[in-house]
Amino acid sequence: MKRFLLLLWLLVVMVFSVNAAVDTLQVYSKSMLKKINCVVITPAGYAKKNTRFAVVYLLHGARGNFSNWVTKIPDMQQLAD
Q1: Residues 30-66 as b or e (16 or more Cβ within 10 Å = b)
Q2: Per DSSP, which regions of the chain are E strands?
Q3: Is residue 9 scored above 80 in pLDDT?
Q4: Which of 15, 17, 36, 42 falls 20 to 30 Å from 78 in CA-CA distance?
């Protein structure tokens, strides 16, 4: 019983520990002469002033689209945190 409660507690902590925000933005591309969609994942605490964060740009392949990283790797929010 104790083992089950421990596993249940760990599951609840994992589910509610994702604080990263996922947004879809449109950015104008000068080379493509149109607006393109992009996904931005900001980690928890991103709105704090005077805090610096590393930036990682994840590009999709020739046959992919802007949402590939978020849809194919569901742990992206946790990785951002």
Answers
A1: eeeeeeeeebebbbeeeeeeeeeeeeeeeeeeeeeee
A2: 21-29, 34-42
A3: no
A4: 36
The model's pLDDT over 20-69, given as tens digits with 9 standing for 90+, comes to 788 889 999 999 899 988 888 888 778 777 888 888 888 887 888 888 88
Residue found by looking up tokens 């930036």 in the block: 55
Reading the block at residue 6, the tokens are 């421990």
17 to 9, 10, 44, 70, 81: CA distances (angstroms): 12, 10, 10, 17, 9
pLDDT of residue 33: 95
Alpha-carbon span 58 to 39, nearest angstrom: 10
